[in-house]
Amino acid sequence: MQLQRLTLTNFKNIPEAHLELSGKVNCLVGNNGMGKSNLLDAIYTLSFCKSFTGVADKLLITRGETFAMLKADYLRKGIDENLLLALGGRRKTLKRGGKEYGRLSAHIGSFPLVMIAPRDIDLIRESGEERRRWMDMVISQTSPLYLDALIRYNSALEQRNRMLRDGIVDATLYEVVEDIMGASADTIQTERAAWTLRLSSLFSRYYEAIAGPGETVSLTFRSHLSDGQSLRAHLDSARRHDEIVKHTSVGPHRDDIEMLIDEMPVRRTGSEGQCKTFTIALRLAQYDFLSRATGMKPLLLLDDIFDKLDARRVERIMELVASDEFGQIFITDTNRKHLDEIIARTGGEDFCIWRVDSGRFIKADKDPEA
Prior knowledge:
Layout: E1 2-11, E2 14-20, E3 25-29, H1 36-48, E4 67-76, E5 79-88, E6 93-96, E7 99-100, E8 113-116, H2 122-125, H3 128-140, H4 144-165, H5 171-211, E9 217-222, H6 231-245, E10 256-261, E11 264-265, H7 266-269, H8 272-294, E12 299-303, H9 311-321, E13 329-333, H10 336-346, E14 351-357, E15 360-363
Parallel strand pairs: 3-13, 3-14, 8-12, 12-13
Antiparallel strand pairs: 1-2, 1-4, 4-5, 5-6, 6-7, 9-10, 10-11, 14-15
């Protein structure tokens, strides 16, 4: 899959931009805060209908403006496709080929994308909520059944938590909601466990490719349901406790992934370089998984990824992303040196470079000496 053209209006600090894109490498160079990451976020938003940063839609609109517009032309499975996302007014709308989606969730997975950014460190250092959000985002792109189960589970979970807060003790009412939660939980738990197992082998390979031999890493899925009992059984056992604390204490919304390096939690023992390598390997494994599952090479967005890495690891990452395993790449940096090295490794003339200054994108000369 390739993104061929991108037009932005009033998106974050970008008042207006139109980019004709390379099918292989697209580089954005400029100082921090100029709009490089915002352009990547626009591409991300077109795939997921929400910002990579998680901010509210109204904060994606340029300050002082009432709307934002994102237009994109793609080549997807050999067919020309176009998307138009409008923000502002009562709701956001997304049109594909001029036809508006009835449900935005139906769009997820159609235009696969992987973004690697500094905030990925949250996958290691923050709570299980970050890792669950990551699992949901990746699996939902390849399994509509999973996404539907997740939506139903979260809706029922919210209803159960409301009942607990309101002090409702009618067991019949709980049974109705918990039946929905239980049926959805089986699908969620099964798919998460299978995905983690599949991703783990890909992840280990990418980590060693970047770090070299000598470090052992692993991913292990942790769930209340791993003991073989149904969610209904767990909810029955926790009912009295949940009535006291006023929220649901067991279920897929408590699942997590244990991340280890040399059999120790990476969040506690990993150096900055190891943690950065860990998260980049996670994202590259995610890319590999999506590529195999969708039959398309996702877009790969690399946002300022080389900080905190030694020269050898940077070299290995550049070798990986420049290989034929990866498709179209978007990469930002404050220094053009890394960008020119990646371009040189692709061995072709199919690349574009833009200098970014205060939300403006200026096509740069391909010759770094010019």
